[in-house]
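F.,

This is the one I mentioned.
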């Protein structure tokens, strides 16, 4: 009989802890997201430090504690990617052996023509672009032509931006659903993303009504395993989007920021359920990592850590908490892309052994294997369960 009734996984989106050995294959040189932000005077995360953040092998910064209160590990990404979808899928148990397609020169002309015909609208831009800059540069043309701004990034994404006054949000979502049906196989990008915005030139503002349309997961996940046993699988933030809604029993969207995401998670703690609450906090990546804002990232980590203190004080005897990340996005590195990094795994709870350095493991899928084992579920994955090593 498991000692755990509820598991909470909180993904600090892009909170990498140092360059992986194959980082040059992904265009990365020296990178360490944690080291960059920990050097900021705005960085203060005593609760993560107590669990064992700076005791993890190879973090290269911060001051370890003498007696960590949790178990901790460093996880390497086995999948061939450094994007959100690939990272989350691997956490849940799926190792992606082929990278998802990216388009550094924009999408091919024949694909754009097919999409324009399906949309009945002209496509503007079709380049890798900053999401805030692209609406500034193409917003007036979008309004004048009624076209759709299509852009990508270093990630495997197809993004559609349009002014809410010109293209109502639900219609924008329909265009994304159409694109999702077309973007399969060779052009099966990880995510099609709706990016609505409002305002007048040049002061456009992206709204919180973003929506991601992901590929269906290509293998079995820990949520599939839990659902087969009738257990809860609650997603907070963009978790449901990342897994195309599959095996998510309930989804709570984040309307504002990381603080809103943690407030929703804290409310979930008041509920009586058995199973998993899987949380993504995207601001670290979207608002600060990609924008190379070291102090902003550091301050967001500090605010999260304060809310983490409240979370820890509310934990029940049969709860377990895992804090991890899906990739890096070092705000101290050149460029604006994700960085190929190890991620932390912090594990805490009354039935979790304190001070256990689990070392370094070759896949994020250790998490999915451990969660499945915790609830007595079968999951086929390349990860192995850490449960025997962490349970008191």
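My design for it:
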């Amino acid at each position: 009989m498991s000692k755990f009734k509820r598991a909470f996984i909180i993904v600090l989106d892009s909170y990498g802890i140092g360059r992986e050995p194959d980082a040059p294959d992904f265009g990365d040189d020296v990178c360490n997201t944690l080291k960059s932000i920990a050097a900021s005077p705005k960085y203060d995360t005593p609760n993560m430090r107590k669990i064992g953040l700076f005791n993890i092998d190879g973090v290269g910064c911060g001051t370890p504690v003498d007696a960590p209160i949790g178990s901790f590990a460093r996880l390497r990404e086995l999948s061939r990617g450094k994007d959100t979808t690939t990272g989350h899928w691997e956490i849940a148990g799926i190792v992606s052996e082929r990278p998802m397609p990216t388009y550094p020169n924009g999408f091919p002309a024949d694909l754009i023509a097919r999409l324009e015909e399906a949309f009945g609208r002209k496509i503007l831009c079709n380049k890798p672009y900053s999401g805030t800059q692209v609406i500034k540069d193409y917003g007036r043309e979008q309004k004048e032509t009624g076209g759709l701004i299509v852009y990508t990034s270093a990630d495997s994404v197809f993004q559609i931006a349009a002014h809410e006054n010109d293209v109502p949000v639900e219609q924008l979502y329909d265009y994304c659903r159409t694109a999702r049906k077309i973007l399969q196989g060779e052009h099966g990008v990880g995510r099609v993303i709706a990016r609505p915005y409002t305002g007048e030139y040049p002061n456009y503002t992206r709204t919180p009504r973003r929506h991601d349309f992901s590929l269906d997961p290509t293998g079995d996940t820990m949520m599939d395993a839990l659902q087969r046993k009738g257990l809860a699988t609650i997603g907070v933030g963009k978790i449901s989007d990342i897994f195309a809604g599959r095996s998510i029993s309930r989804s709570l969207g984040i309307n504002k920021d990381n603080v809103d995401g943690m407030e929703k998670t804290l409310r979930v703690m008041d509920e009586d359920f058995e199973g998993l609450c899987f949380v993504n906090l995207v601001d670290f990546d979207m608002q600060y990592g990609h924008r190379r804002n070291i102090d902003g990232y550091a301050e967001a980590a500090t605010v999260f850590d304060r809310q983490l203190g409240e979370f820890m004080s509310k934990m029940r005897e049969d709860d377990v908490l895992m804090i991890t990340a899906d990739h890096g996005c070092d705000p101290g590195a050149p460029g604006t892309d994700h960085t190929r990094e190890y991620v932390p795994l912090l594990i805490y709870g009354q039935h979790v052994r304190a001070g256990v350095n689990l070392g370094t493991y070759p896949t994020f899928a250790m998490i999915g294997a451990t969660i499945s084992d915790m609830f007595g579920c079968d999951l086929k994955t390349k990860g192995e369960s850490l449960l025997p090593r962490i349970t008191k």
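The radius of gyration is 20 Å.

Talk soon.
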